[in-house]
Amino acid sequence: MTEEITAKRRPEEGDNVWLKEKLDLNLIPIFLTVMQHRNITKAAKVLGISQPAVSNSVSRLKKVFDDPLFVRRGRGVEPTRQACQLEMELRHAISLINNVFPPFCFDPQTCSRSFTLAISSPFDTLFFPRIYQYIRHHAPGIRLNVCSNKSNHTLGREHVDFIISYESTSGENMFNRLLFEDDMVVVAKKIWGHNLSLMDESAFYGEKHAVVSLKSSDSFSAIWYDTPFKRNAITYQGQCLFSLLEVVSRTNLIAIMPAWVTRSWRNGPEVTQQSLPLPVKKRACYLTGYTTNPEDAGFLWMLDTLTQICQKP
Description:
- By secondary structure, the chain is α/β, with parallel strands linked by helices.
- It is built from eleven helices and eleven strands.
- The strands form three sheets. Strands 3, 4, 5, 6, 9, 10 and 11 form a seven-stranded mixed β-sheet that branches.
- A hairpin with a 2-residue loop joins strand 1 (70-73) and strand 2.
- The termini are far apart.
């Protein structure tokens, strides 16, 4: 008679086999990134891998947990109830693991990470060259994606890591920093014959104005044209302050803008700047960042770097 021998696995051996066969731990950060951005393409961009690779990873997780995990909604995806529960548990687990290991030392010289920055006009022309040169010399491996209009972007889910603008953005996982307060002036052509700084508000809005288009959700000019009476003064709406300078230099229109814009336009149209005869003479400039991990050394480095670079003109 042949004796049948059955090998018995120790309990811990069974656990290891299950992990190996059923759950690849490398899938966890992919899952969490898709949860954060609600979009497969954006998750792939953040992770630096292909979209098919992300889709394949999600498919593998669906089999592991026997759940769809994500349902398509428009151009993105919506997590199922089980996916939301998994996110909470996995983030907690990662937090516990991070507490075990020593803090990660971030080295900008060797980092190959990507960040996306939205800079509202007119700060794009002022700050982007500074930021570009600094990153190029001090963190050459970092990929910085910059857009000059934040209207179509949202911190976090739409994958914008940082925004520089005249408006602060509050919410969960957001960091706001006041960079400086910008001095405002009123600009007219060189041979303008009136003293705009001595006008009262009614006379000031009795003049014809050039503004940055109020149709833009982050229009620089909108704060000074918040009533029908004030909007009635608008004759020209441009896309940026530099186009306003051109128009003002050739017409009898006037425009409100930061003092540094006209100072930096020395070789451009001939204009004169006067004190702004309105209560709001300054506007605060903010840097806002988004992260789900407040101890992220790379994010904190970039936050501090942008704060240092983007000082008052």
